[in-house]
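Side project, low priority. Logging it here so it doesn't get lost.
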Amino acid sequence: MVSSDSFDDDGGAGTPAPTSPLKTDAFSFEHALAVVDGASGELSHSSGQLDRVFQLASVTKLFAAWGTLIAVENKVIGLADPCGPAGSTVRHLLAHASGLPFDQGARLAKPGERRIYSNLGIETVSDAVAGCLGLSVEEWLRSSVLEPLGMGDTTVPDSPATSGLSTVADLSLFAAELLRPSLISPMMASEATSVQFPRLSGVLPGYGRQADNRWGLGLEIRGHKQPHWTGKKFSARTFGHFGQSGSFIWVDPTVRKAGVFLGIEPFGAEHKEKWPALTEEMRGL
């Protein structure tokens, strides 16, 4: 498994991953990326400053989801426990199926009726878990997820849905956890990466309405979405998340690889144009 001491002070790996340029890794702004190989748990490719801190935006949600699943296995809270609006559960909130709006306000649909991507939903379930533990959300995520994985340069100072700051080195440690879970059981990991409330339509931010907008427990599932930020070669089982800060993390279990990308420019036309080809090239390394 990738460990925190696999990276030296200059942001490189202790055993350097190949850094020959990728054909599709040409952006007009500073960025860094890495590919994690699930068989070895090591980086198979990296470029850019791996120790530079970037904003994560919605990739932060993965920490909140993983922390919630840890709490579920420790019987702090249950997936079927009521949480959020009437009729909603922890499972609904993690799967963006609670009916809560994106940011604030009253619910827009009945639980389980539509896939409404919701920062508010992730914040609601995070507040519930942290409250059960008697901790702040920041303390909860640091003690349950970040510290156990050795992610010393990662912080979640405010919203568990959007405020994360991290490095490619640290996010690669989390990618390795997604590939080979150590903080939750294989059964829980399988549940997290399985489609929750199947065949719900909804908007994938930045990519429009999807008739089958698949999500697991806090993880977006690739399915057959089109357009999408990953390339067409990815399996339908691929899961991960991207953020409006211009960040992503993906895992394709069929090839046992994960990819991480962070940059200084917010998500825009350049990302939308280049990410599909870049992710496909990363997947093929």
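Brief comment: Residues 103 and 120 are 5 Å apart (CA to CA).
Revisit when time allows.
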